[in-house]
Amino acid sequence: MQLKKAQQKRLYQDVLFLTELRPFRNYQNLDSLNRVVDYISNEIEVCGLSYSYQSWIADDNEYRNVLCSYQPEKEKRLIMGAHYDVCGDQPGADDNASSVAGLLETIRLVTENKYDMDYGIDFVFYCLEEPPFFNTSSMGSYVHAKSIASNKENIIGMICYEMIGYFSDEAFSQDYPSPFLSMIYPTTGNFIMTVGIEKYKDFNQKVFNCMKRNKNIDVFNIDFPTSDSLAGMSDHLNYWKFDIPALMINDTSFLRNPHYHEITDDIETLNFEKMSEVVNGIVNYFISN
Q1: Angle between the 8-20 and 98-113 helix axes, to the nearest 10 degrees?
Q2: What phi and psi, each to the nearest 5 degrees, are found at residue 97?
Protein backbone atom coordinates (compact mmCIF):
# COMPACT_ATOMS: atom_id res chain seq x y z
CA MET A 1 0.00 0.00 0.00
CA GLN A 2 1.33 3.41 -0.97
CA LEU A 3 1.47 5.74 2.01
CA LYS A 4 -0.38 9.03 1.82
CA LYS A 5 1.68 12.22 1.86
CA ALA A 6 1.09 15.67 3.32
CA GLN A 7 -1.32 17.83 1.34
CA GLN A 8 -0.43 21.45 0.67
CA LYS A 9 -4.10 22.39 0.31
CA ARG A 10 -4.94 21.23 3.84
CA LEU A 11 -1.90 23.02 5.27
CA TYR A 12 -2.96 26.21 3.49
CA GLN A 13 -6.52 26.04 4.82
CA ASP A 14 -5.30 25.61 8.39
CA VAL A 15 -2.91 28.56 8.14
CA LEU A 16 -5.57 30.68 6.44
CA PHE A 17 -8.02 30.15 9.30
CA LEU A 18 -5.44 31.03 11.93
CA THR A 19 -4.03 34.10 10.20
CA GLU A 20 -7.43 35.56 9.36
CA LEU A 21 -8.64 35.51 12.98
CA ARG A 22 -9.37 38.95 14.42
CA PRO A 23 -8.58 40.08 16.97
CA PHE A 24 -5.21 38.36 16.75
CA ARG A 25 -4.76 35.18 18.76
CA ASN A 26 -2.54 36.56 21.52
CA TYR A 27 -2.97 36.02 25.26
CA GLN A 28 -5.19 39.09 25.63
CA ASN A 29 -7.81 37.92 23.12
CA LEU A 30 -9.47 34.94 24.79
CA ASP A 31 -12.31 34.72 22.27
CA SER A 32 -9.86 34.24 19.43
CA LEU A 33 -7.87 31.67 21.39
CA ASN A 34 -11.07 29.77 22.10
CA ARG A 35 -11.95 29.79 18.41
CA VAL A 36 -8.57 28.22 17.70
CA VAL A 37 -9.26 25.55 20.31
CA ASP A 38 -12.61 24.79 18.67
CA TYR A 39 -11.00 24.58 15.22
CA ILE A 40 -8.25 22.22 16.38
CA SER A 41 -10.75 20.07 18.28
CA ASN A 42 -12.95 19.74 15.21
CA GLU A 43 -10.04 18.75 12.97
CA ILE A 44 -8.95 16.10 15.47
CA GLU A 45 -12.49 14.74 15.59
CA VAL A 46 -12.58 14.54 11.78
CA CYS A 47 -9.50 12.30 12.02
CA GLY A 48 -11.42 9.90 14.24
CA LEU A 49 -9.55 10.66 17.45
CA SER A 50 -10.93 11.94 20.73
CA TYR A 51 -9.54 15.09 22.33
CA SER A 52 -9.27 16.62 25.76
CA TYR A 53 -8.32 19.94 27.29
CA GLN A 54 -5.72 20.82 29.88
CA SER A 55 -6.61 24.08 31.61
CA TRP A 56 -4.73 26.43 33.91
CA ILE A 57 -4.96 29.99 35.19
CA ALA A 58 -2.52 32.74 34.25
CA ASP A 59 -3.10 36.38 35.18
CA ASP A 60 -6.64 35.49 36.30
CA ASN A 61 -7.57 34.05 32.89
CA GLU A 62 -8.11 30.43 31.90
CA TYR A 63 -6.05 29.03 29.01
CA ARG A 64 -6.17 25.60 27.40
CA ASN A 65 -3.95 23.04 25.73
CA VAL A 66 -5.63 20.67 23.30
CA LEU A 67 -4.53 17.03 23.55
CA CYS A 68 -5.19 13.89 21.58
CA SER A 69 -3.57 10.46 21.51
CA TYR A 70 -2.87 7.91 18.82
CA GLN A 71 -2.64 4.33 20.04
CA PRO A 72 -3.41 5.42 23.62
CA GLU A 73 -3.18 1.83 24.81
CA LYS A 74 0.58 1.72 24.25
CA GLU A 75 2.77 2.21 27.31
CA LYS A 76 5.64 3.94 25.53
CA ARG A 77 4.81 7.47 24.30
CA LEU A 78 6.19 10.02 21.85
CA ILE A 79 5.12 13.64 22.42
CA MET A 80 4.60 16.03 19.52
CA GLY A 81 3.60 19.64 20.07
CA ALA A 82 3.18 23.15 18.66
CA HIS A 83 1.93 26.42 20.15
CA TYR A 84 -1.05 28.26 18.67
CA ASP A 85 -0.75 31.71 20.27
CA VAL A 86 1.01 34.69 18.70
CA CYS A 87 3.21 37.51 19.99
CA GLY A 88 1.19 40.72 20.05
CA ASP A 89 -0.92 41.99 17.18
CA GLN A 90 0.23 40.05 14.15
CA PRO A 91 -1.14 37.16 12.08
CA GLY A 92 1.68 34.77 12.98
CA ALA A 93 1.78 32.74 9.77
CA ASP A 94 5.22 31.24 10.28
CA ASP A 95 5.17 31.81 14.06
CA ASN A 96 3.34 29.58 14.61
CA ALA A 97 0.40 28.83 12.32
CA SER A 98 2.80 26.89 10.10
CA SER A 99 3.48 24.48 12.94
CA VAL A 100 -0.14 24.14 14.05
CA ALA A 101 -0.98 23.24 10.47
CA GLY A 102 1.99 20.87 10.38
CA LEU A 103 0.88 19.12 13.56
CA LEU A 104 -2.69 18.77 12.32
CA GLU A 105 -1.41 17.33 9.05
CA THR A 106 0.80 14.92 10.99
CA ILE A 107 -2.29 13.69 12.84
CA ARG A 108 -4.11 13.27 9.54
CA LEU A 109 -1.29 11.23 8.03
CA VAL A 110 -0.91 9.04 11.10
CA THR A 111 -4.60 8.20 11.13
CA GLU A 112 -4.99 7.88 7.34
CA ASN A 113 -1.97 5.59 7.02
CA LYS A 114 -2.95 3.64 10.15
CA TYR A 115 0.62 3.36 11.41
CA ASP A 116 1.15 0.53 13.88
CA MET A 117 4.15 1.21 16.11
CA ASP A 118 5.21 -0.26 19.42
CA TYR A 119 4.53 3.13 21.02
CA GLY A 120 1.76 5.72 20.92
CA ILE A 121 1.85 9.42 20.11
CA ASP A 122 0.46 12.20 22.27
CA PHE A 123 -0.21 15.37 20.26
CA VAL A 124 -0.40 18.65 22.20
CA PHE A 125 -1.39 22.10 20.97
CA TYR A 126 -0.07 24.63 23.48
CA CYS A 127 -1.13 28.09 24.52
CA LEU A 128 1.08 30.80 26.08
CA GLU A 129 4.40 30.06 24.45
CA GLU A 130 4.89 33.72 23.58
CA PRO A 131 5.83 36.67 25.85
CA PRO A 132 5.03 37.67 28.51
CA PHE A 133 4.80 34.02 29.59
CA PHE A 134 7.79 32.56 27.77
CA ASN A 135 10.11 30.59 30.07
CA THR A 136 7.65 30.70 32.97
CA SER A 137 5.54 28.02 34.61
CA SER A 138 2.49 29.53 32.87
CA MET A 139 3.55 28.19 29.49
CA GLY A 140 1.20 25.51 28.25
CA SER A 141 4.15 23.25 27.51
CA TYR A 142 5.41 23.60 31.08
CA VAL A 143 1.96 22.65 32.36
CA HIS A 144 1.97 19.58 30.13
CA ALA A 145 5.57 18.55 30.79
CA LYS A 146 5.03 18.74 34.54
CA SER A 147 1.87 16.63 34.24
CA ILE A 148 3.72 13.73 32.57
CA ALA A 149 7.05 13.96 34.41
CA SER A 150 6.21 11.10 36.78
CA ASN A 151 5.92 8.81 33.73
CA LYS A 152 9.09 10.00 32.00
CA GLU A 153 10.65 6.52 31.94
CA ASN A 154 8.00 5.60 29.34
CA ILE A 155 8.45 8.74 27.22
CA ILE A 156 10.65 8.29 24.16
CA GLY A 157 11.02 12.02 23.65
CA MET A 158 9.30 15.19 22.48
CA ILE A 159 9.30 16.75 19.00
CA CYS A 160 8.38 20.43 18.82
CA TYR A 161 7.24 22.09 15.60
CA GLU A 162 8.29 25.74 15.78
CA MET A 163 8.19 27.86 12.60
CA ILE A 164 8.38 25.42 9.68
CA GLY A 165 7.09 27.56 6.80
CA TYR A 166 9.58 30.24 5.70
CA PHE A 167 12.20 29.42 3.09
CA SER A 168 14.33 31.51 0.74
CA ASP A 169 16.35 30.61 -2.35
CA GLU A 170 18.21 33.92 -2.31
CA ALA A 171 21.97 33.77 -1.80
CA PHE A 172 23.09 34.75 1.72
CA SER A 173 19.50 34.77 3.00
CA GLN A 174 20.57 32.63 5.96
CA ASP A 175 22.23 34.27 8.95
CA TYR A 176 23.93 32.68 11.97
CA PRO A 177 24.79 33.81 15.49
CA SER A 178 28.49 33.21 14.80
CA PRO A 179 30.73 33.23 11.71
CA PHE A 180 31.88 29.72 12.60
CA LEU A 181 28.41 28.29 11.98
CA SER A 182 28.23 29.95 8.55
CA MET A 183 31.28 27.89 7.60
CA ILE A 184 29.45 24.65 8.45
CA TYR A 185 25.87 25.29 7.38
CA PRO A 186 24.37 26.72 4.14
CA THR A 187 24.09 30.46 3.58
CA THR A 188 20.89 30.06 1.55
CA GLY A 189 17.81 29.66 3.75
CA ASN A 190 16.02 26.84 1.97
CA PHE A 191 16.49 24.02 4.51
CA ILE A 192 14.94 22.85 7.78
CA MET A 193 16.81 22.14 11.02
CA THR A 194 16.54 19.82 13.98
CA VAL A 195 17.70 21.78 17.03
CA GLY A 196 18.54 20.24 20.38
CA ILE A 197 21.17 19.94 23.07
CA GLU A 198 24.02 17.49 23.37
CA LYS A 199 22.56 15.85 26.47
CA TYR A 200 19.88 14.25 24.29
CA LYS A 201 21.91 13.75 21.12
CA ASP A 202 20.89 10.09 20.77
CA PHE A 203 17.23 11.02 20.43
CA ASN A 204 18.08 14.04 18.29
CA GLN A 205 20.14 11.96 15.89
CA LYS A 206 17.37 9.41 15.42
CA VAL A 207 14.89 12.12 14.43
CA PHE A 208 17.44 13.81 12.17
CA ASN A 209 18.38 10.57 10.42
CA CYS A 210 14.73 9.82 9.71
CA MET A 211 14.06 13.29 8.31
CA LYS A 212 17.13 13.05 6.08
CA ARG A 213 15.52 10.16 4.23
CA ASN A 214 13.18 12.63 2.54
CA LYS A 215 15.27 13.81 -0.41
CA ASN A 216 12.77 16.54 -1.31
CA ILE A 217 14.06 18.89 1.39
CA ASP A 218 17.49 19.53 2.87
CA VAL A 219 17.73 18.82 6.59
CA PHE A 220 20.52 19.82 8.97
CA ASN A 221 21.07 19.17 12.66
CA ILE A 222 22.62 21.24 15.43
CA ASP A 223 23.07 20.23 19.07
CA PHE A 224 24.08 23.06 21.37
CA PRO A 225 26.16 22.41 24.50
CA THR A 226 23.53 23.88 26.83
CA SER A 227 19.90 24.97 26.81
CA ASP A 228 20.82 28.67 26.84
CA SER A 229 20.25 31.08 23.97
CA LEU A 230 19.10 29.72 20.61
CA ALA A 231 18.86 26.11 21.72
CA GLY A 232 15.75 26.54 23.85
CA MET A 233 13.54 29.08 22.13
CA SER A 234 10.29 27.13 22.12
CA ASP A 235 8.14 24.65 24.01
CA HIS A 236 10.66 21.80 23.97
CA LEU A 237 12.72 23.58 26.65
CA ASN A 238 10.13 22.73 29.30
CA TYR A 239 10.60 18.99 28.76
CA TRP A 240 14.33 19.39 29.39
CA LYS A 241 13.42 20.81 32.80
CA PHE A 242 11.96 17.40 33.66
CA ASP A 243 14.79 15.43 32.02
CA ILE A 244 12.75 14.38 29.00
CA PRO A 245 14.55 14.28 25.62
CA ALA A 246 13.20 16.97 23.30
CA LEU A 247 14.12 18.88 20.17
CA MET A 248 12.75 21.57 17.87
CA ILE A 249 12.01 21.35 14.14
CA ASN A 250 12.67 24.90 12.97
CA ASP A 251 13.32 27.05 9.90
CA THR A 252 15.79 29.11 12.03
CA SER A 253 13.28 31.85 12.80
CA PHE A 254 14.68 35.41 12.82
CA LEU A 255 18.02 34.20 11.48
CA ARG A 256 16.19 33.88 8.15
CA ASN A 257 12.70 35.28 8.36
CA PRO A 258 12.51 39.12 8.28
CA HIS A 259 8.81 38.93 9.20
CA TYR A 260 9.43 37.37 12.62
CA HIS A 261 7.06 38.94 15.20
CA GLU A 262 5.94 41.52 12.62
CA ILE A 263 2.56 42.35 11.09
CA THR A 264 4.02 41.11 7.79
CA ASP A 265 4.23 37.49 9.04
CA ASP A 266 1.34 36.51 6.79
CA ILE A 267 0.32 33.53 4.71
CA GLU A 268 1.77 34.91 1.46
CA THR A 269 5.29 34.57 2.87
CA LEU A 270 5.08 30.80 3.41
CA ASN A 271 6.28 27.99 1.17
CA PHE A 272 3.65 25.24 1.41
CA GLU A 273 5.58 22.85 -0.79
CA LYS A 274 8.50 22.91 1.65
CA MET A 275 6.14 22.75 4.64
CA SER A 276 4.58 19.58 3.30
CA GLU A 277 8.02 18.01 2.93
CA VAL A 278 8.87 18.87 6.55
CA VAL A 279 5.81 16.88 7.61
CA ASN A 280 6.64 14.06 5.21
CA GLY A 281 10.13 13.98 6.67
CA ILE A 282 9.04 13.73 10.27
CA VAL A 283 6.55 10.98 9.41
CA ASN A 284 9.56 8.85 8.44
CA TYR A 285 10.23 8.59 12.18
CA PHE A 286 7.02 6.61 12.63
CA ILE A 287 8.02 4.22 9.87
CA SER A 288 11.51 3.64 11.25
CA ASN A 289 10.95 3.43 15.01
Answers
A1: 140
A2: -60, -35
Rounded Cα distance, 127 and 23, in Å: 16
Q: How many CB atoms lie within 10 A of CB 196?
A: 28
254-284: b (≥16 Cβ within 10 Å) or e:
ebbbebbbbeebbbebbbbebbbbbbbbbbb
Rounded to whole angstroms, the Cα distance separating 217 from 210 reads 12
CB 246 within 8 A of CB 239: yes
One-letter amino acid of 108: R
Banded model confidence at residue 234, pLDDT cuts 50, 70, 90 = very high
CA dihedral 83, 242, 281, 6 (to 10 degrees): -40
What are the structural domains, with CATH classification, of the chain?
Answer: 8-164+192-254+261-288 (3.40.630.10)
pLDDT (tens digit per residue) in 15-66: 999 999 999 999 999 999 999 999 999 999 999 999 999 999 999 999 999 9
Inter-residue contact 211 to 285 (CB < 8 Å): yes
DSSP secondary-structure letter at 283? H
**Which H helix or E strand runs over 107?**
helix 98-113
pTM for the model stands at 0.97
Structure letter (DSSP) for residue 2: P
Cα torsion 95, 100, 102, 105 to 10°: value is: -160
Sheet holding 61-70, edge to edge: 51-58, 61-70, 120-126, 77-83, 155-162, 246-250, 191-197, 218-224
pLDDT for the residue 260: 98
